[in-house]
Amino acid sequence: xxxMGGSAGAAGIPDLPGMAPSAPAxxxxxxxxxxxxxxxAADAAAKTQGVFPYAADLxxxxxxxxxxxxxxxxxxxxxxxxxxxxAAMAGVRAVITHADVPGDAAHGRGVADRxxxxxxxxxxxxxxxxxxxxxxxxxxxxxxxxxxxxxELLEPVTDPEQAFAAAPLHPDGNLIRHIPLxxxxxxxxxxxxxxxxxxxxxxxPAPIGAEAALAVPRPDGGxxxxxxxTDPHADRDLAAACxxxxxxxxxxxxxxxxxxxxxxxxxxxxxxxxxxxxxxGHPVKLAATREESFLAHPHRHPTLLRYRHxxxxxxxxxxxxxxxxLDAGAYADSSAExxxxxxxxxxxxxxxxxxxxxxxxxxxxxxxxGHVRGEGAMQVxxxxxxxxxxxxxxLGIDPAEIRLRNIMATGDLLPTGQTVTCPAPVAELLRxxxxxxxxxxxxxxxxxxxxxxxxxxxxxxPGAVRRGVxxxxxxxxxxxxxxxxxxxxxxxxxxxxxxTVICAAVETGQGFSTLARQIVQxxxxxxxxxxxPVDTDQPPCGPAAHGRHTWVSGGAVERAxxxxxxxxxxxxxxxxxxxxxxxxxxxxxxxxxxxxLSTTVAEALDGKELWATAQCxxxxxxxxxxxxxxDAFVGLAFCAxxxxxxxxxxxxxxxxxxxxxxxxxxxxLNPRQAHARIxxxxxxxxxxxxxxxxxxxxxxxxxxxxTGYSLPTSxxxxxxxxxxxxxxxxxxxxxGAKAISAVxxxxxxxxxxxxxxxxxxxxxxxxxxxxxxxxxxxxxGLGG
Length: 784
Description:
The chain is α+β, with helices and mostly antiparallel strands.
């Protein structure tokens, strides 16, 4: 034989008598577009070449520059504001304060409790006091600094536990929400009881690009705002109310979003810019400094958690008791929603017959808290997984095994009384990461000292390094909750061989624009699909959070595309006397099942334009009642992570060696994007576990910059092994897909903490993990 892989003849084997020569095999070409393909992002080239237009890059004729004066104090009474010196400076066009807000003086996502400009009281460090527009950015900053504000300093409330007894920081009081969850028998007890106190720090989204916006006045007396909004219609409505204008006279145009995990939801820049544009009649632009970005946008809620777990002698959970306290900072923002997630998921993806949880979200004079990936769920995951490790140690059971004995499955009940109806392959996920081979130890490689904690120049000794393995199992909800009206609208147009998608779902890096193209390619068989830029002239689609746009906006695009498909195929099917279901579209061609009909999409259109608009609205949910019960969530997603860490038990330095991940994804729509989103989530979780904490002293933010706030770099990123993606489709979700980004963020910090516990024997009850928490009195070699 001369070779393998071709036809028999090609391999040198003669054809048998009477047989026709065998035809060469035709290789099957892999699909190049549609769902399930790793279609590259349409804007990838522009972003990598540095020509993608972000808000900070925009310019307009007659442009003015803005600057904000922010409070240097966390809590103070404003006695007076003197803007005369600033207004008299050459080049200054306008100076505005709270007295210049013509409409609503306060705004907020759920509760309108946050002033555009502080008027009587300052409630957090960095709160806006005034804004300036000038001919040059330096002039604007100097003018802002020249505004004289007389403050009467007040004692800040920075401990959320003290907020209950402290004087009200806001007319609405200090308590934003209280949820008492009651599930089962309060008298139930277990043979084994473990308790724990856990603290979670203030993680910042730290986007690659700080906030920026451009406001342009319109001839009709309205204004257009160009900004990286993730919920443009909500921002438009807030702006219109603030400006005293009808919503149709305010337009939000979404520019490129340089990273968004909640921080883009703060309109504290857009509103002053719009007011300045309306006042001056000129376009006005502001690009925030990194310090302003840290001070202004929402952060992850710092959280205090007290837990008591009851179990029987075999490790089966009997009851969970918990108290959860979220520090909302000065204003409510999304704290009520974060608390609902924290309380609902306080027991984790485990079967718990009896649960009693008290949850509170309170105002303080700390920096604002709000929506950051996995809010509420991440904090409780770190706590309940710490409790599971304590139970395992008390009973002498393997940490993975005790989790498997209690793991949740489809058909089980959440402590809210809601039945888990979606696929919940949690046991399969945990077994996958447990059984994945462990990474090798680096002791035998003399060149591998850089792999040890601290690197080659570190002060530690290899003999003080111990390896630990830990598990984290977590869950998040998808879409909004507690009765949120989740609806999205999309339009699909086809002209010639080109399709256009019009949908106000913002591309924040989660891949929606690419997904929309793939959906239309799948349904209409057209390769060339254009996704229109987003603005508020389009119907609303809601915020880019909780996997909404994959589900709701993707569902709307699919429905609109299918309606266009029917319009296109029905006349052809009628002409040939067959049902349009017997026709297929692929690669721009329409063919019938029997091959009789074969034409192109362009020929079938015959110069006509087809279009359709559709909505997607998932099944409704309901608010939690006064005992924390209710069907509050549309769907759930799950993840299991196994962390392997090396810890220098003398210095407390930690290196995450490997993170093995198994995730419940429903269906992989774009493999490359799915892997990238999981890897990004794991990396963000590692940051929350080890380095990221926006520190404050007496309410003042300490070093609000990228040197004082330690983000993980590429050298801190571990090997991320995606062990398994379980594609058990959720039948109520379009395409069966689930949200991907948030649940690795939720789960990975708990896994890292568990691994450090295993390496050191210390409780590790605080995130990020401080060096003193990772120091062990039991020194031992690597692998101990």
